[in-house]
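Handout, section 3.2

Students often ask what a structure token actually looks like in practice. Rather than define it abstractly, here is a full record for CDP-6-deoxy-L-threo-D-glycero-4-hexulose-3-dehydrase reductase. The first block is the sequence as you would receive it.
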Amino acid sequence: MSYRIQIAETQQVFFVERGETLLQAAGRASVALPHDCQLGGCGTCRIRLLDGQVRYDEEPFGLAPDEAAAGYALACQAQPLGDLVISTAREDEACAEPARHRAVVRGVRPLSADVLHVELELPDAGALDYRPGQYLKLVAGDGPARSFSMASVPSAGRVDLHVRRIPGGAFTDGVLPRLKAGDGIDVELPLGNFFYRARDYRPLLMVATGTGLAPIKAILESLMDDPDCPPVSLYWGMRQPDDLYLHADIPAWGERLYDFQYVPVLSRAGESWQGRRGYVHDAVLADLGDLSEHAIYLCGSPNMIHDARAAFIARGASPDYLYADSFTFQHY
């Protein structure tokens, strides 16, 4: 049995077979639906059900109960229970089409015991047409492509990556240590829908865990010295003080951003730590009241994004101004 799916805005129709998700069926029918992680964590594939219902094998991380109750669904996980009429309406800014380019390694250096700074140069000056916050894929040899957020603004043909080492990882323990200045590597970019929406013009709440700081760093760099920069609050969650690999540099960002607040939060800090403790989203809830006026950017672990989305929406945050990039674990 198959179900008929109609997109209200375009009147496009495709059919979903039993056991398929909406996204899988749309891809098979060459119908473009926005998506990123395909694991139900980032929320990029969020649609609205105008008629009909869906089910999930497991409740997705990237959809809060209030959103589901309001008729929203995640196309990458949703399976229809019958014919559907869906809305994909989301006014968004156009991004460059992704393309493959040859990059040159300019340097690899440690930022901490577990995080490496990788600097790449793209000789093709037009290749770095991306929105701060987006990611690229590194293609090394015959192995699978690896996704990394770009941690810098497009400038001078160079791009920075923050790469967390995975012990025993085929890429981070195998390929990456062998890379040296002058080596070539293929990249595909730009990718993703996690980027700054200037049209929102709301106070910015940026919440990151781990190397989820990387795309947020790129976004904030793009706002430095901008007279239209809104107020910015950055909450960064890590386990221990040594994990905060840019901790000494971040306060200086406030000199070039409007009304900047930086709050590091550690979940496993020792007695010497004088700062905030616990989960990063709980620190936000303790500091801020109503979140209905904020534009919120979440980047990091799926668990953080799931918990933060639900908690922030309960505090008034609008799903229409909440953007997420979920860093799903891979054996890098």
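Discussion prompt for tutorial groups: The domain at 99-191 is CATH 2.40.30.10 (Elongation Factor Tu (Ef-tu); domain 3). How would you have guessed this from the sequence alone?
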